[in-house]
Fold this sequence. Notes:
- By secondary structure, the chain is of the alpha/beta class.
- It has two domains: 3-123 and 295-310, Nucleotidyltransferase, domain 5 (2-Layer Sandwich); 129-293, 2-Layer Sandwich (Nucleotidyltransferase, domain 5).
- Helices cover 42% and strands 23% of the residues.
- Strand 9 and strand 10 form a beta hairpin.
- Helix 3 packs across helix 10 (299-310), helix 4 (168-178) runs parallel beside helix 6 (214-225) and helix 4 (168-178) packs antiparallel against helix 7 (230-255).
- It is globular, with a radius of gyration of 19 Å.
Amino acid sequence: MKFLGIDTSCYKTSLAVVDEYGQLLWEKRVALPVKGGEKGLRQSHALFVHLVAIPHLLEEGQKELNNTPYTAVGAAVKPRPLPDSYMPVFKVAETVGRSIAASSGVPFFPFSHQEGHIAAGIWSSAMAKDNFFCLHVSGGTTELLQIKINRKRQMEIKLIGGTEDLNAGQFIDRLGVEMGFPFPAGIHLEKLAKRAKGSVKLPVAVKETKLSFSGPATRASHLLKQGCPKEELARGIEICIAESLSAIVRAAQREYRLSALLIVGGVAANRFIRRYFEQKIDGLSLYFAPPRFSGDNAVGIAILTFRNFTKKSM
């Protein structure tokens, strides 16, 4: 059996295929091309880029897997598992996924992009918990969640904290682009920060489980214009994000008696931030999606498709 997952986010076009044991058979993702100095694509242009990329990825996947038919198809059809959650780019994944399923006479399963991230994190970190915290930290999301796996072995997601303005990934990308890096800038800012011999102190704006990155971003931009060493500023940005995220986790620990924290999303690939959590967070078992599965990918969607079809538990 072969289960196809599709995700068309603001950053990548992604396809993944798993087998009847939940083992990854094939996956491929391509980044959306963004011109130098720009901080992303308009939704209309991103949608067009996805439409151009998907046929080539499908052809590559079928060639790699000897053109065996799909058993079921799943897609990320919206950003979050909420009734009013919507973003045009995800209509590409939904339309293509439904079309493949209908023409093949197989089931189609709709999911959210966030559920895909969480499923990829659970699967790739081998976490076995039924009730845990999850930090979803990326360019489009900075949320602290409580995840419960219910009696039907489905995820129940409750928002308990996060940003009130900029996302952590937006903070990184905004300053990274100002420093001259291409979008998305995360990997470039991380490499730059490794050369730092010190760091710039940026404000941390946290109140209980809510945080803000707009003030720190404005301060960082001001320091950059004043000639602050880029390496030290890059490390200061990493520290600010790590301190802010860990602060809202500690606040949640005081209210919720949970024993584990899963961290997913593109920002979760940053090794400095990972080490910071490992050193500073007590009382929680930490689980990270490996860097390969931290950023936008369709692996979690394929896993969810497999589990929903076979009724396998998370």
